[in-house]
Specification:
Length: about 450
Amino acid sequence: MPDLTQIVKAYDVRGVVPDQWDETLAELFGAAFATVTGARQIVVGHDMRPSSPGLSHAFATGAASRGTDVIEIGLCSTDQLYFASGKFDMPGAMFTASHNPAQYNGIKMCRAGAAPVGQDTGLTEIRQLTEEWAESGLPATDATAGTVTKRDTLGDYAAYLRGLVDLTAIRSLKVVVDAGNGMGGHTVPTVFDGLPLELVPMYFELDGTFPNHEANPLDPKNLVDLQAKVRETGADIGLAFDGDADRCFVIDERGEPVSPSAITALVAARELAKHPGETVIHNLITSWSVPEVVKECGGTPVRTRVGHSFIKQEMARTGAIFGGEHSAHYYFRDFWKADTGMLAALHVLAALGEQDGPLSGLVAQYDRYAASGEINSTVDDQAGRAAAVREAFTGREGVDFDELDGLTVAAADWWFNLRPSNTEPLLRLNVEARDQATVERVRDEVLAIVRA
């Protein structure tokens, strides 16, 4: 019996192939997904990893065995799969392990309209059925086997995104894009086709072994090549996509990274210009600048826990037009409340091209504070270390606490959040302040306690 608790995470399936799962299990996952969703039709796509086509087709075969018709859209980005789920109004499954190393693969699942599937919304039942059938075999069914057909959605996906952001009147821009040998190499040429952009491609060859660098732009070492190319070519902007191209990081004309919080604030301002007075979601470790900009633009900021399931829940509850996270996930009501780094990138390109100044000047108004970035510490006793930090700051004048997600401690000119990892023995620290010296002082004080 496979131990599926090791690969079925809170929001997706992810593990090493074939050690932890294989096409046999993928077929059972497909049958379970069809059963739990009760869908007559589903859509399935996959990234460029060597194991993805086989796993994806096995999943489709399993779903079809339950009487469900399957549309295979083949190679796609995760947000292209969400587009298909939304456009066709049917559940979907994307085979990808995002930025994980080559030997990993996984499944991101959604219900019709790109609504997320997580442990509380069907993933637990899918795991339980898959475990049961792995032991006993698939039960017989009276249903006529479903069909498996292929469909290309890339052109429709690109046209839909371009319909949400008007780039026709912008000035010509030189754009360096690092696809990291991931799915951005598949989607960017079609999305950018016909736009007034001079594209400088980097690592567009689809290669799930990631020969140049990990497709994880959250790690600064994976941005070095892009930063150098932006400076070398005199480009206006650099864009870095992760492996499944649902996250996008931005580099300015100097080769400096732009904070995802600044991008969140910029896109929020643009969305609020289209939809005055609406709500914008931000997680609790985005910058103070995000709710400030939202209020200045006449919107209502709503603060949430970290994680796409919480963002999407709050977007559904509040009807928010947009949501952003520090990890460069950007969610849009116009995109079925799903995350799409590509749409965020188009917004940034439009904002840059509609004015004459450099990107660094444009984003300066949205990047108002000094920040530490996320700092990880390996600890044996996460709860104990967090309690020690809380005790150290208790009783200080003007200091407030909240525990919406981990421990957040805030004063007039600084705040920090200390969160435990759900999957590793880590505490994650983020600090922001009005100046760099204060960031360093608070950071060093908290780390001294955490690492004691």
